[in-house]
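Archive entry. Fields below.
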Amino acid sequence: MLMSYFWFQILVYGAVGLAALAPIILIALVIIDWHKEQLW
Amino acid sequence: MTSVAISTEWALTIVVIFGLLWVSFGWWLGRNNKTLDDFMLAGRNVGFAFASATAMATWITSNTTLVAPQLTYQFGVWGMIGYSLAALGLILFAPMAKRIKALMPHGYTCGDFIRKRYGFWAWIIFLVVSLCYAFGWLVSLGMAGGILLSALSGLDYFIGMSAILAICVAYTLLGGLKAVIATDFVQTIIILCGVILIAYIGITDIGLDVIYNNVEDKSPQLLNLLFPAAIMFLFNNIFFGIGEIFHSNVWWSRAFAFKENIGKKAFLTSGLLWLPIPIVTGFVAMAAFSLDVYPESADMIGPLIAAQILGKVGAIFVFIVVFSALASSLDSLLAATSDLITKDIYKGLINKNASNDHLFRFSKYSILVLGVITWLLCIPKVATLGSLLNFTGAFVASTIFPIVFGLYYHRLNGVAAAFAMGLGTLCGLIAYFVIGFYVAALTSCAVSLFICLIGLAVKDQQYNWQQLQSEE
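PREDICTED_STRUCTURE:
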């Protein structure tokens, strides 16, 4: 049973989309911590 | 290998520039390290942002950028999905990190916990398992450094491997865990931007439909959802990932280093952010059939495809991404293994009266010695990255249940825990050699669970949790 192109698209596009959010979230968290002086 | 993507001069220039950058950053961050807690655990005061980034960066290793494409090339969709489920390790460790910090607010290593919870022999077996894994991972990372430089620039394997190891040892030595965590943040951002760019250009330039159609024509088993070895690999990798995180001092030292009430949400965030990364790095390997790239060794598939997609300038970018991924894990592992050697082996077995100032100095020497031993073990390039890493799966998966029961259930005793880890590892190794690498962790974990359950049924230890704080 082969994975259909539809599910292959969902898998790849979903992963790329979620991965693209990661650096934005991490940079936002650092800015917040830095403002609160809670980095360390 | 199809071709060399960048010149040796370019590769060396990048290594020198980033090497100087990381080492200077490490020195700057480490200049105020005065105590053992500062050096080993970043003052036990790491905030949420750095905590999340370091957990994520450490789990994005060279293996995520090199082995995830390799496994996709070998096992298809289950290869990349299986690898991404290693995120479960981070997610499940989240509540454990909270529990660890609460039970042992002054703890240093996972060895501390095993010794106090289960006694001497379980502790010794655990140290053997833990050090075998640590060296397996260190060697895998050192080898990956050499393979990367060799694949992308034609530079001799020995020189590339030596350079990457030397840089990581230098900045870990100068800055301790603080340097490791801060560089991890910068490295995470570089890695994430890199892998997203490669995936985006792969999709837009080649086309997802073209990639899919070529795989369907030339290697349809990679899309087969009932590929038996791949399904076995998926379950094996879940237990391997969980075992790697639950037992390793890389993660325990972070649980001790993060601020109060930070560990749980930081590990949860990092796990969720990490989940899609192996799919992003892995699916690119499927483009091999569209680009007619056929590597000599399967673990070179990722960088070669990325270099092919992005061209010469892109290859430089790929080089920086994988170099960052290597450094982000190598530094963490050097620091955590040095902690284990300093606190468990040196203070625990050799010099029980050593002061914290003495241990502070000793831990720096141990990082240096670890670097040299790793370098020596990396010189003969003995195995592919995937097989070397999966070999250690037999060791780590045996520790999952002794650690979980040890943290949450007072009943399990030290004898059962020692047998569970010892026999679990032994059976896992037998499965590795008799059946294949994709069942080693699964077998090890199952045997260990069985012995733990017998131990629970036979004897109630009624462990007093206060003992975990007593000796500090």
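CURATOR_NOTE: The helical segments of chain A are 5-35.
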